[in-house]
Specification:
Number of strands: 22
Shape: elongated
Radius of gyration: 24 Å
CATH topology of the largest domain: Metallo-beta-lactamase, Chain A
Strand content: 15-25%
Oligomer: single chain
Number of helices: 12
Largest sheet: 7 strands, mixed
Structural class: alpha/beta
CATH class of the largest domain: Alpha Beta
Bound molecules: MU-OXO-diiron
Number of domains: 2
Strand order of the largest sheet: 1-2-7-8-9-10-11
Length: about 400
């Protein structure tokens, strides 16, 4: 299967309708995904990226229907991660001498993954590859999101092949951004940014400003996952600049786990207190044991403040709470306030532990949190509502 992007650009990737977990079990893909590969047919023929390994044979067989593989002059590896390079061993079995253009780190990673000494050609920002009357211009984009990541830009057509950047895990036959449900599209875009790119936000801003500084016309952004931006492609670039700049909405998210519902009751009462104090703020509650981790991270990304609750167990905290705290530590959120709460029976360490971990992860923890014994009675519920009101005042 292939689809026409432009008269000289053919999409030759794979739509993965069944995918529900990505990066092993690390990322939920409720709407599937796609691995986008593009074939540019000019006087010279270039293939940009491939697909994930399980689809390698299918990919190469389809590609061979599109073009005699021996006629591919250049292969561009914008990114060495397995979802884009997985079909290389199968493809290179047919055309072992065809040059692969990639960054220095790209060659290193491809060698590390596949242990083959293919015909690598190392490129840097500003290097050009002539396809005849048009050129591919390479732009290194290290840590967006791997050390090897790279974009390339096709002159004449003004198409940016951005690989992971500006992409989304969103399977669609419709292919273009103006042909899909906008709410679904942007939900997958923000989830992708929140879960994958948050730690690299300073680099996102620097790289986008650098590319904008080239003053290149931009007609289309061909990503490596999901849809292609052809209608106002700059809109997703502007969104990235907004998201990279310590993004937040007027939202407080309350995350908790509970054993016998006491901490859940605390969460609900604190939420009521926040709502009482500030009728404008959006308050959302999630039981961490019952909610998809990546959806929770997206909500944290959108929040100006979070509250995290756990009962105490064996002098510690519940495992689903510990897991999300570990995740957010790595994501390096900035400019967000936080608080902790939880019920306990006797030792009661959970609130202190959660507060410490939030502070270590860069959240502004401005109070000691709220801990209560056993099941909250009416007086304790009032204490929770008052804590919620004070927290609303802080944020
Ligand atoms: Fe889509 Fe970083 O791989």
């Amino acid at each position: 299967m292939s689809m026409t992007v432009k008269s000289n650009i053919q999409w030759v990737g794979k739509i993965d309708w069944e995918l529900r977990r990505f990066h092993g079990d690390e990322y939920s893909t409720h709407k599937g995904s796609s691995y986008n590969s593009y074939l540019i047919k000019e006087e010279k023929i270039a293939l940009i990226d491939t697909v994930w390994g399980p689809y390698a044979k299918e990919f190469v067989a389809n590609l061979a229907k599109e073009i005699d593989l021996g006629k591919i002059d250049y292969i561009i590896a914008n990114h060495a991660e397995s979802d884009h390079s997985g079909a290389f061993p199968e493809l290179m079995r047919h055309i072992p001498q065809t040059p692969i253009y990639c960054t220095k780190n790209g060659a290193k990673i491809l060698k590390g993954l596949y242990h083959q000494d293919w015909n690598f050609r190392i490129v840097k920002t500003g290097d050009k590859l002539s396809l005849g009357s048009k050129e591919l211009v390479f732009i290194e984009a290290p840590m967006l999101h791997w050390p090897d990541s790279m974009f390339c830009y096709l002159t004449g057509d003004a198409v940016l092949f951005s690989n992971d950047a500006f992409g989304q895990h969103f399977a669609s036959e419709s292919m273009f951004n103006d042909r899909v449900d906008q709410a679904e599209l942007f939900q997958e875009c923000i989830k992708y940014y929140a879960n994958i790119l948050t730690p690299f936000s300073p680099m996102v801003i620097r790289k986008i400003k650098e590319v904008l500084g080239f003053n290149l016309p931009l007609d289309m952004i061909c990503t490596s996952h999901g849809i292609i931006w052809r209608d106002k492609p700059a809109q997703i670039v502007e969104k990235y600049l907004e998201w990279a700049d310590n993004y937040q909405e007027n939202q407080v998210t309350i995350l908790y786990d509970t054993m016998w519902n006491s901490t859940r009751v605390m969460a609900e009462q604190i939420a009521a207190g926040i709502g009482e104090a500030d009728g404008e703020v959006t308050v959302k509650l999630y039981n961490l044991a019952k909610t998809d981790k990546n959806d929770v991270i997206t909500e944290i990304f959108k929040s100006k403040a979070i509250l995290v609750g756990s009962p105490t167990i064996n002098n510690g905290i519940l495992v689903h709470v510990a897991a999300i705290l570990e995740e957010i530590k790595g994501l390096k959120f900035k400019n967000k306030k936080a608080g902790a709460f939880g019920s306990y029976g006797w030792s009661g360490e959970s609130v202190k532990i959660v507060s410490q971990r939030l502070a270590e992860s860069g959240f502004e923890v401005g109070d000691e949190g709220l801990r209560l014994t056993w099941s909250p009675d009416e007086a304790s519920r009032q204490t929770c509502r008052e804590y919620g009101m004070r927290f609303a005042g802080r944020v």
